[in-house]
Amino acid sequence: MNGVLYRVRESIGAVKQTEKVVAQYILQHPEEIVSMSVQQVAANCYSSPAAVLRYCKSIGYEGFKDFKLKLAGDLSIISLHDLEKEPLEPGASLENIMSVITNNNVQSLYESLQLLDKEELTKAYRLLVDAEKIDLYGVGSSYLIASDAVQKFMRINKVCTAYSDFHMQRVSAVNLRANDVAVAISYSGETKQVIDCIKVAKSQGAKVIAITKYADTAISSLADAVLFVAAKEDEFRSAAMTSRMATLNVIDILYTACAHEEYDEALLHLRRTHEIIQQSGEKGGSNS
């Protein structure tokens, strides 16, 4: 998948009105679009061929033909895996809830995979490999993701921190240096506390990695490397919920890439940390 429909959904609030109508028409008629010409699309949404082409380029495609090709590929995968589900209705059965929630998570992972830029991902994990310290910032559910990242990276002997308290986040940020890395986790890309922390971190010379939604946001504009994730929102599942799985997946990718970069050393640290945890469990059991 190329995350085409996700990119279209996320672009609606950021494009001009002449291009917004094109995006809305695409979302309403995705299957029809793949067999239409640029002139037909323009006529049907009361726009111009030039506006359609501008819109396709604005969301990362070479033109309308490239956009249609990627959209057709996405639609075939969506159909194969039954990814597009209607929102859950009142009184939905447990079986329906199981299916919809699972498929929404799968769709988020599929779309996020296609949003990840290889160059940006390479830049991000190289920054982490070379970092003397990694400082992670997040609020609410994003902090839980940051905490998960700390547990992973500490196992391979990377010095890293994540604080739930905003004051502690600022204190940690101001103590960063040029060889350190700050990781900002915010799906909206506009979380004020996180923006404040990465501004402080950058003022100290630290590099910044952002994990956020596909859009021009305050956090992405401040970052040295930007990793996009996708989410699908409805009445019961906020964007923070649906993006959690995709963001955790990005953390796993970064962690694994770093571990493989220094494979032998990372394996040694993993064995040591596993052994010490096992010893702690044995001692705890003997005292009970």
TrEMBL record:
<keyword id="KW-0238">DNA-binding</keyword>
<dbReference type="InterPro" id="IPR047640">
    <property type="entry name" value="RpiR-like"/>
</dbReference>
<dbReference type="InterPro" id="IPR036388">
    <property type="entry name" value="WH-like_DNA-bd_sf"/>
</dbReference>
<feature type="domain" description="HTH rpiR-type">
    <location>
        <begin position="2"/>
        <end position="78"/>
    </location>
</feature>
<dbReference type="InterPro" id="IPR000281">
    <property type="entry name" value="HTH_RpiR"/>
</dbReference>
<dbReference type="InterPro" id="IPR009057">
    <property type="entry name" value="Homeodomain-like_sf"/>
</dbReference>
<keyword id="KW-0804">Transcription</keyword>
<dbReference type="InterPro" id="IPR035472">
    <property type="entry name" value="RpiR-like_SIS"/>
</dbReference>
<dbReference type="Pfam" id="PF01380">
    <property type="entry name" value="SIS"/>
</dbReference>
<dbReference type="InterPro" id="IPR046348">
    <property type="entry name" value="SIS_dom_sf"/>
</dbReference>
<protein>
    <submittedName>
        <fullName>HTH-type transcriptional regulator</fullName>
    </submittedName>
</protein>
<feature type="domain" description="SIS">
    <location>
        <begin position="124"/>
        <end position="264"/>
    </location>
</feature>
<dbReference type="InterPro" id="IPR001347">
    <property type="entry name" value="SIS_dom"/>
</dbReference>
<dbReference type="Pfam" id="PF01418">
    <property type="entry name" value="HTH_6"/>
</dbReference>
<keyword id="KW-0805">Transcription regulation</keyword>
